[in-house]
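Quick review question:
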């Protein structure tokens, strides 16, 4: 094979789609342990479906000690999302995916805070973003009546004298990453890409000639051995152990820390009909950035629902459908000290206290944070569902030190014949720019040749929309039209 991709989630599906377009004559194999694509994190009910573009996620624009707001990360995440939007618009025009409403729809993004201190923070955040071309059209209000027009469920029953503030961005989206993944994989299969389901990769080894031997075990233990020039480890929570088994030096010292998640879900049609936004609040002290509470309108394969959460928890599993020995199995001589260092640091910096408080919180206690958001919420309407696993990267920092990282980390072997993805955030929304980066790093000689075709797929490639307001406007408008979005 020219290319073997491990895992049939959004990341492998995106990379394979790019490569199949760029090199139609190459041979590809995708190996997936589940009976279908997108059954782990990329499944719509295993993630929150937010098209992350920092329109509402407050953790991307932290407040500094002097009170100022830094928007660098917010702008970066939005830039990345515009790359994904352009790629998805191209897929739609090429009819590689069906009607865009099968995977993306306008769902306004709101930030909502209460209490004088947080109101002041949001006011400053809005002032810092409102004139930026990628945040154009964002609205701000401290008036409960206006907030009730945008999102009635968070306003009804709230004390009138409580200081509140919200921003509202019509350009927000809800994305069904599971549907998108399955459509990409189906299109690849129709073009002759072989997908081996119910087949678990157990080992990756390099041959003397530099090629990779990927060994997997299929239905009834049937062994599958394939040789590949290039391997992409898109195995989500399973990526760390596979990269470790390959022996590449770039993975040495890396560890991982799994955080599980739960959401409250309701399908009560009366509530679903009254809430059509995604409302993000402020995280608790010590909470990891992906645990910011949010009340989300979701539409998944035609089913409307509201989700609230996520509630973080701890399990030693790296995959939702994985084994409880995965954390233990990831420990190596070289990552033991960085892992221990992070463990001890975590104890000290509030994250562990936060996780413990979440793990032991009763359903009633968890419901209290939904009541903070939606004062009239009734427990009878809501059930707890288990989301996907997030595996946070522990990056070696030299010597015995490690750092717990909340972003995404692409590991690439020195010769560019293998790469893999660790980490979770901002996740599926940034699949397209991350995979373009993989193309650049792993195929530096071919990348220049590919650029004209890549420009058709992502017209703004290589340019920062932030520096070009006219191009930003044009890009937002053309992708909105192709994807049938309101803004
Ligand atoms: C609770 C939660 C909320 C999230 N919310 C958002 C959000 O709102 N917006 C957003 O953009 N992102 C979100 N994310 C992140 C996003 O879901 C992930 O970044 C993305 O789905 C990762 O895609 P992936 O293809 O790398 O992994 P996955 O979708 O997990 O796919 C990996 C695949 O590899 C397979 N696999 C694993 N090991 C092996 C093996 N040994 N052999 C063969 N196959 C194997 C698995 O079965 C799986 O199908 C969220 C994640 C979680 C957990």
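Suggested answer, residue by residue:
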């Amino acid at each position: 094979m020219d290319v073997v991709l491990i895992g049939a989630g959004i990341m492998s599906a995106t990379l394979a789609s790019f490569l199949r377009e760029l090199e139609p004559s190459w041979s590809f194999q995708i190996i997936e342990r589940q009976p279908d694509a997108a059954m782990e994190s990329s499944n719509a009910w295993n993630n929150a479906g937010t098209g992350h573009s920092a329109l509402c996620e407050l953790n991307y624009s932290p407040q500094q000690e002097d009170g100022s707001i830094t928007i660098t990360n917010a702008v970066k995440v939005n830039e990345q999302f515009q790359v994904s939007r352009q790629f998805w618009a191209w897929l739609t025009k090429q009819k590689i995916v069906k009607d865009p409403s099968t995977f993306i729809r306008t769902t306004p993004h709101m930030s909502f805070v209460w209490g004088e201190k947080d109101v002041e923070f949001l006011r400053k955040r809005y002032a810092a973003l409102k004139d930026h071309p990628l945040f154009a059209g964002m609205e701000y209000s401290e008036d409960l009546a206006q907030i009730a027009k945008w999102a009635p469920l968070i306003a009804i029953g709230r004390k009138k004298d409580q200081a509140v503030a919200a921003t509202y961005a019509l350009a927000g989206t809800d994305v069904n990453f599971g549907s998108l993944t399955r459509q990409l994989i189906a299109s690849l299969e129709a073009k002759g890409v072989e997908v081996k389901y119910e087949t678990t990769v157990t080992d990756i080894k390099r041959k003397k000639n530099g090629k990779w031997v990927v060994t997997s075990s299929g239905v009834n233990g049937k062994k599958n051995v394939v040789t590949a020039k290039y391997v992409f480890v898109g195995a989500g929570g399973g990526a760390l152990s596979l990269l470790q088994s390959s022996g590449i030096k770039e993975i040495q010292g890396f560890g991982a820390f799994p955080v599980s998640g739960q959401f409250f879900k309701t399908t009560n049609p009366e509530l679903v009909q009254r809430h059509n936004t995604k409302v993000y609040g402020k995280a608790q002290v010590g909470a990891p950035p992906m645990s910011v509470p949010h009340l989300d309108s979701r539409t998944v394969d035609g089913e409307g629902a509201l989700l609230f959460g996520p509630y973080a928890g701890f399990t030693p599993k790296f995959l939702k459908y994985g084994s409880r020995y995965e954390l233990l199995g990831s420990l190596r001589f070289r990552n033991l000290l960085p892992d221990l260092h992070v463990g001890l640091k975590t104890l000290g910096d509030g994250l562990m206290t936060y996780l413990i408080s979440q793990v032991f919180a009763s359903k009633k206690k968890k419901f209290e944070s939904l009541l903070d958001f939606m004062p009239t919420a009734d427990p009878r309407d809501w059930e707890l569902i288990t989301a996907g696993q997030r595996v946070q990267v522990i990056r070696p920092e030299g010597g015995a030190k490690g750092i717990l990282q909340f972003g995404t980390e692409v590991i690439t072997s020195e010769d560019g014949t293998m790469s893999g993805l660790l980490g979770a955030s901002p996740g599926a929304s940034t699949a397209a720019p991350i995979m373009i980066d993989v193309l650049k790093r792993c195929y530096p000689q071919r990348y220049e040749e590919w650029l004209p075709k890549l420009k058709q797929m992502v017209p703004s490639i290589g340019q920062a929309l932030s520096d070009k307001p006219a191009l930003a406007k044009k890009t937002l408008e053309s992708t909105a039209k192709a994807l049938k979005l309101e803004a």
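Why it works: Residues 72-93 form the longest helix (22 residues). The chain is about 35% helix and 25% strand.
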